[in-house]
Fold each of these.
Amino acid sequence: MTHASGERASREIAVEGLARVEGEGSLRVDVRDGSVADVALEIFEPPRFFEALLVGRRLDEAPDITARICGICPVAYQMSACSAIERARSVVIDPRVRALRRLLYCGEWIQSHALHIYLLHAPDFLGCDDALGLARIDRGSLARGLRIKRTGNELMAAIGGRSVHPVNVRVGGFYRAPPPADLTALAGPLRRAREDALATVEWVATFDFPDVEAEYRFVALHDPDGYAIESGVVTSSEGLETDAAGFADVVVEEHAARSTALHARIGGRDSYLTGPLARYALNGAQLPEVARQAATAAGLGTACRNPFRSIIVRAVELVFACDEALRLVEAYDAPDPPAAVVTPGPGTGAGATEAPRGLLLHRYELDPDGAIAVARIMAPTSQNHLVIEEDLRRVAQDGLDLSDEELTRRCEQAVRNHDPCISCAAHFLDVEVVRR
Amino acid sequence: MTGPPSPVLDPRPTLAVWKFASCDGCQLSLLDCEDELLDLADKVHIAHFTEMSRASVDGPYDLSLVEGSITTPGDAERIVAVRRASRRLVTIGACATAGGIQGLRDFASTGDYVSAVYAHPEYISTLDTSTPIAAHVPVDYELQGCPIDRHQLLEVITAFLSERRPVIPAHSVCQECKARETVCLVVGRGVACLGPVTRAGCGALCPAVGRGCFGCFGPAETANTSSMAARLGSLGVAPVDIVRLFRTFNAGAPAFRDESLDHDTR
């Protein structure tokens, strides 16, 4: 629902129930005397209290319970939970387990990025209300997106049993290593998906992009072994380099009145951005040749600071994820045993991984019996929240000459640029633009 | 190509998807029907589905799918309005049918929960309970699962739009293990498994990877949970762990709730 009112010099643009995002939130832009007085991205998702309900649960229950924070990126939750608990218990992980985790995570990147590009974000650029509108003007493109998404889901199901809340992940590794034949059967679809992803980069590069540049503080994991997904140290464009535990210590999360999510600042001061733009800026040199060439052909430099062009970066990451999945499928060596033994016991550990939409950090303190005593979860959208509001302010100010309808669409698009997951952040989005 | 048909002249039945406290995973199952989504949208007018579209048509709706549990005073009012606008209402997933994982608050003090997560508990408007939709309004059908199975979802949509009962098995996961020839984990390896009391629908995924069923589809129609608990005890599962097994995503489902309370000595 959208409403706008008043004279153009002063007006309010409001979207209650922001669509095509995961979860429930709203957007409000307040324009007074020809300039933007206030913007708010409000998260109204009912709180679900995960950090509290985890207390007293056994350490091996954390991956399945935290997966239920988000149906779109459950693997991210499972992987960050496993990483944190394995550090707390000083568990050594077999490199073959790590490779299989990365492969499962590639499946999640593929389905989530395809979902966001084709079903949630692209309709904005083409003037459609949704993917069904896109299907009416370009059914072939949507079919391509659904084909990519299906391959991501099939990869997740082959390893995890199903794509929403996979069942095969455990602390230490997997319950069972998938038979090699189940994975090699996916090589063909992944090759096709990589071609489709390359076509996606070309397709989204033809969209019209508002001319906006922002000075972002980028934060992403960095892994010397490859474009970071399931492991790495936390780095920033300002030279930060720390492990997950150190990052948890420097980030302060504020609780704003207008939201059931928490807003994160480095050192309690600076907003920062995680996700595709940050990963591309900090780790882009590690992308495989096929993804780098696609990026160059699409006009991306070594960093992209136009948030509307994040759809191109997401498409480049889609090429990477398909290519990386194919590489891992071809190199698959079934881990035996499929999981390290994890004994219950005390400890404190933090783990961070790259969810499709940004850095996801878990930190746990375990009591002497191995039950969770304290849990902390920093979701990507909580970390990106302040930057999304800063973008909204910039976009609204630049778009004051637009009609209410156009400005509302532009503001919604500015929020979707960062693929917010309101379910993760607590639950989010409704848009309101006020002009007075 | 032309735009969408006018709602007034559109002969297709209308479908609405609503979200309450949840993870979005069950409504995502609809978008995960990659091969069927466009055909479905040809046959059904998707009139309200916020995760998919910014366009929304006012009700009444022929069929509403409801995801999520009721955890706030505002949502308790909203579900009444949704029911009023819906000819048929089907709940999808463990949150909407049993209160979900957030229903664990029902076994603790919500005040403790709020202050554990938020610095300013006074900003948070929440109920002490996480209740299923059927605790608030009449429900025509409940589809279980955390998450639901998308094939079952398509069956339910098809059935309701053609005015027949959905064909969804009410038996336990055990039958699915037999069907896929998975050797029984309880009998063969002494693994704790909730399969005998858990509703089929997932395809017995966990036993197939050597993991005991953890009950994510909730209770089967005639679940003998006390016999299950006795068997778990004989496998060496401590009472505190029997409580944990029954108290996850379907903790509020009566059969699981009552059994967990029987073993909760706190």
Note: The longest helix of chain A spans residues 95-125.
Amino acid sequence: MRLGHAGIVFRKELTDVLRDRRTIVTTIVVPILAFPLLMGGMIGLMIFFARQAERQTAPVMLLGAESAPTLAQKLSEQEGFTIVPAADDYVQRINDKQLRAAVEFPPALEEKVRTTPEETQTVSIYHFEGELRSRSALRTIERAVRDYRDQAVAERLAARGLSTELLKPFEWKRENVASAEKVTGVIVGFIVPYLVILFTLTGAIYPAIDVTAGEKERGTIETILASAVSRLELVTGKFLLVFCTSTLTTVLSIGSMAVVVLAGAEYLGRLTGGFVIALSGKAAATVFLLVLPLAVLFSGVLLAVALLARNYREAQSYTTPIVFLAMLPAVASFIPGLELNAKLALVPILNVSLVAREIFTGQYNWSLIGLVFLSSCVYAGVALWFAARQFNREEVLFRT
Amino acid sequence: MIEAQGLTKVFRDKKRGEIRAADGVSFRCQPGQIYGLLGANGAGKTTTLRMLATILKPTDGTARVAGFDIVEQPEQVRAHVGFLSTATALYGRLTARETVEYFGRLNGVDEPTLKKRTDELLTLLELHEYADMRCDKLSTGNKQKTSIARTLVHDPPVMIFDEPTVGLDVMTARTIVGFIRDCRARGKTVIFSTHVMSEAEKLCDTIGIIHNGKLLREGTLAELRQQTGLSDLEDVFVQAVESAG
């Protein structure tokens, strides 16, 4: 094989594909803008709904309020609460979402709290389980009720000349000893391996179809096959193009995501003073290295499969099952407790998903990383061989 | 020079079984001559020419093209052949100049020669004005001219034309016919397939009548007339096909 000829094919395919608006959109524009737009949209929606919630008042009903005037007063002073007159149909109204919650006080609650300390009174809070606004009202009510109880306990202790400190023989405090990098790694390691695999695959699909089925559809396959380039040189040039676009899509997507996350974290950090996020350059570089054979694998398989198709549409239907097949093992990083071992290191795609999660959390098991890289290289080699073989099959090239 | 010896191509089809698209085709075409393969659609013309251009591998038999064996040395064969057919489209997103240069590079033309040759061809074919226009924006005529430039950029000694005028308007077809004659005048070995009798009559030094993958008759127009006692090429063709059953 003459590498120079493969290079000529690669340069031509690159020129060709860079002049195609669809490729530019799918390979460059979408990866850069998708995540910021998604995040922006989500934050915008959250702000919108939060403001809407602020403007809305929460109707709450108090049943038997005369038995607990202090607590009833406290509840009516809660921000956003509107106390509605007591009625028997409160269950129906909560179900109809007309009422966020209802609080039922037992008879003579406050008097009994003062006079019969040996008897525990029960306040019932009626709410709509799972309904967000009802749950928010429930939390506010529980906080107010707890404060009232704490106050009652403090009064009882004071009446006996005791301090509330008696209730706290010791305290505890939580302290995070993991570095910001590792804390970030847990979150990143959960979702990023999946996204990296997804982008590596999606970045390869369109160019793989364009340089195979697209070439057949446009009638240029015979033109190129009649030139002095060998089939192996041709497939190598095309493969290099698909591999580059796949890698570029991944780098742009993850880069854009990192910029958004880091900028967002810095903003949150300034607001709260405690939110710190840090990404490890070493982890990112190691994962990138592991993704390269995966990009080769996807490029080879997609080239071989798309070449079977007679036209662009057919190629799309052929490649869709590949996306599903590839994304199934890619979700491994989401599964808690699924740890990488020597056997799993041999399972394509899943191995990269798991090892990437470990790397992001700061675990560098070099023998497993090496095994994942080597096995991925073997799969990549098989995929490339498969693609090269397809380019030598006349029944595939001239399928009618 | 082209020397085909028993070229055979068998396709296997799930529904139709074994199809012998070319069946022991043998002929010889000398430099400075045009050999015409005359046959109806599905006769085996395209398969034969694709085998000569090494796009398809023969099931049996072989051929020497410009001194190279099509089975043993396919890349050398392609480097010495210009192949043009209605199926050989252009890359729509490349310009005419980029197209010519791309195929020049693939055919091993060095950069200084490539620049000179591309300019010469673009001038010769009156394409200079459109040289930097994307091929998908070119008129049909200019597309064909770009295709011609592509096939000539490495100055191949052998030219293979597979029904090059099918679907073209009269003026564009005339350009192609003129170009084929020009190739002969420059001493190239030219093989050309057609189902248009008048084209074969006008252009070919030797005509081979092909039907069901078999070469039924071969000779100059005068020889074919003499063999059959018929003056019209169409009658000669029909008689050859009918006598073959």
Note: The mean pLDDT of chain B is 91.
